[in-house]
Amino acid sequence: MIKCHNKQKDWVYDEDQDTAIKVMDSSIAIKGSGKGHGHSYVETAWFTIYGCYASPNKDIEDLKMTLQEIRDRIMGKNECALVVGDFNAKPPQWGMRATDTRGRVLTEWIAQLDLAILNVGDAPTFVRQDYGSILDLSLGTADIGRKIVYWEVSVKETLSDHKYIIFEVQEEKGTPKTRQQRYQGWNTRKLNTVNLQRATDEVVEDENAISAKGFSNTLRGICDKSMPKKKGVKRG
């Protein structure tokens, strides 16, 4: 997945042609592909991969629209899914000294889908002069997240401020099965903003919690303290 500037053949672009996906391995069976607001996707026999880009120059409603479309498709089709991209968000759990509205919206969305954070380590994915940040995220539904056997930020030159991210999905043998997943997550309608702020402040003060490796557990802890779980709905 790349953020692109010039349209090329055999790439799957989002509606604004800001991001694109290309399947390099011709042996991978493609079931379908498509595009939406701020994202494009390719569906294989085993999972669907989404490539996203959220411009920092657009308002928060633009990001919300992108996340809503992806969430509706993942839950509506009961997908095993990988979501990768540049969200230009600053959750404090991601090493930022101060969060922003985009960070809070993204954190809530990850919690709603109960996605696993696949980033490993604290290497910055975005570097400009002496400033580094983790803006590019790799997320996955729990079933596909368990199949990630390798993930790294590449040191290869990209001619961009963003680094290449390389990861490997362990292929299953046999016939793909219908996904059995309980989309429990958290009930965001009952979010306690006071508890949310208190839990977030605790994370910012705890330097050991601020790393990509511990983000998933940290996020779940914050959600547990600030809102109740939804009742599980089995899909499949």
From TrEMBL:
InterPro entries: Endo/exonu/phosph_ase_sf, Endo/exonuclease/phosphatase. Residues 48-166 form the Endonuclease/exonuclease/phosphatase domain. It comes from the Eukaryota. Pfam families: Exo_endo_phos_2. GO terms for molecular function: catalytic activity. PANTHER family: DOMAIN-CONTAINING PROTEIN, PUTATIVE-RELATED, ENDONUCLEASE_EXONUCLEASE_PHOSPHATASE DOMAIN-CONTAINING PROTEIN. This is Endonuclease/exonuclease/phosphatase domain-containing protein.
